[in-house]
């Protein structure tokens, strides 16, 4: 007999259409509808991004398909089968929908993984809590994966991308050691620091592992935050836009953005970095590039599959 394990693959979620932005934004804001100015501002950002209006949906679909193929390969000739289900944080199919689909299919054991490598109680913690609560309602034994930010395949995939862009700078005449490498991730409210949240330290750990792998020198890199919300409370900084200004004052001419907290092309990369940060750099006379997103990179799929297989209890 075959052992069937449900894999809940969780991602942020994106609207399905321009009309869907309000409901999506309201969900992000825990039921509080945005003002019409906020709604307009967000809609205009979606309209501005290159590569289609809501690329995250198709990218997540493709990542889940690629992960399913990787797990099928891994399970071949074993008595275990992995079946992937999608669960999105702020859009359908929601996390709860994914668990319900598992229950409908008679799944009794499930692993949950988030398409974001670093743990914060405010990010991954939130996904896993919802998944576990729903799994309990359906008598599904659930275990969640907190993080995989130092998986060697993830570090390799990111390092390949850093080297690729450093080479591109060198190809344009920039001295490699003069390119400032800016690792970044989504900012969170500073109150996570009082909770001893592992998020900032995990992000630094990933950064340091890439620094080592790419043999960057110490003065060549730094960590900076991006995409902070406007909630009236303080968020973790410095923000990448302020960092770029500081770099210009210090005479830096080349900046490479490496968004290690994100694994897919979506609004926070295609707008916040490719339009906003890139535009700021141009204004400041800094030559700016960004590493390619992981999307369905086989090394990323390996990091996910290893984490999932490793989380299965005997
Ligand atoms: O392409 C897309 O459609 C979605 C892109 C997207 C990703 C993403 C990832 C993260 N977020 C995280 C935290 C917060 C917190 C708030 C917040 C608000 C927004 C808004 C949009 C949005 N986020 Fe997001 N986030 C994405 C998109 N995020 C749109 C609402 C407008 C705005 O503030 O810009 C603030 C909530 C509040 O108001 O109380 C906090 C974190 C991640 C990375 C981990 C993950 O992927 O889950 C952390 C992708």
Give a short overview:
The chain has 314 residues and is of the alpha/beta class. It contains twelve helices and eight strands.
What does this structure look like?
- The chain is an alpha/beta fold and 314 residues long.
- Helices cover 46% and strands 17% of the residues.
- It contains 12 helices and 8 strands.
- The protein has a 4-stranded parallel sheet with strand order 2-1-3-4, sandwiched between helices.
- Helix 4 (95-104) packs parallel to helix 5.
- It is globular and about 65 Å long.
- Bound small-molecule species: ligand FEC
Strand order of the largest sheet: 2-1-3-4
Helical residue percent band: 40-55%
Please report the number of helical segments: 12
Low-confidence segments, given as residue ranges, are none
Shape category? globular
Query: Which percent band covers the strand fraction?
Result: 15-25%
Gap between N and C termini: 15 Å
Overall mean confidence score, pLDDT: 97
Overall structural class, as computed from helix and strand content, comes to alpha/beta
Q: How many β-strand runs? A: 8
SSE series: EHHHEHEHEHEHHEHEHHEH
Q: From the alpha-carbon coordinates, what is the Rg to the nearest angstrom?
A: 20 Å
Q: How can the largest sheet be summarized?
A: 4 strands, parallel
EC number: 4.99.1.9
Family: Belongs to the ferrochelatase family.
Binding site for Fe(2+): 186, 268
GO cellular component, one term: cytoplasm
């Amino acid at each position: 007999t075959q052992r069937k394990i449900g894999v809940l693959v969780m991602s942020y979620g994106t609207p399905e259409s321009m009309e869907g932005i309000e409901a999506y934004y309201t969900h992000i804001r825990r039921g509080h509808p945005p003002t019409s100015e906020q709604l307009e501002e967000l809609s205009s950002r979606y309209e501005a991004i290159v590569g289609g209006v809501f690329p995250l949906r198709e990218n997540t679909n493709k990542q889940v398909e690629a992960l399913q193929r990787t797990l099928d390969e891994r399970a071949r000739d074993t008595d275990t089968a992995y079946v992937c289900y999608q669960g999105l944080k702020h859009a359908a199919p929601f996390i709860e929908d994914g668990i319900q689909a598992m229950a409908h299919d008679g799944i009794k054991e499930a692993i949950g993984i988030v398409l974001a490598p670093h743990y914060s109680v405010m990010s991954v913690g939130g996904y896993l809590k919802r998944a576990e609560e729903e799994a309990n309602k359906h008598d599904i034994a659930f275990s969640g994966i907190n993080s995989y930010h130092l998986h060697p395949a993830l570090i390799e995939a990111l390092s390949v991308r850093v080297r690729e862009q450093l080479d591109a700078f060198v190809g344009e005449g920039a001295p490699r050691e003069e390119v400032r490498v800016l690792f970044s991730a989504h900012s969170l409210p500073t109150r996570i620091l009082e909770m001893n949240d592992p998020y900032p330290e995990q992000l630094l750990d990933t950064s340091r592992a890439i620094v080592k792998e790419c043999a960057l020198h110490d003065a060549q890199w730094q960590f900076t935050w991006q995409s902070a919300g406007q909630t009236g409370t303080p968020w973790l900084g410095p923000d990448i836009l302020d960092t770029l200004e500081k770099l210009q004052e210090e005479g830096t001419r080349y900046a490479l953005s490496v968004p290690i907290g994100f694994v897919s092309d979506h609004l926070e990369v295609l707008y916040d970095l490719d339009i906003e940060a890139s535009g700021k750099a141009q204004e400041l006379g800094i030559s700016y590039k960004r590493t390619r997103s992981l999307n369905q990179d086989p090394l990323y799929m390996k990091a996910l599959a290893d984490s999932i297989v490793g989380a299965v209890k005997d």
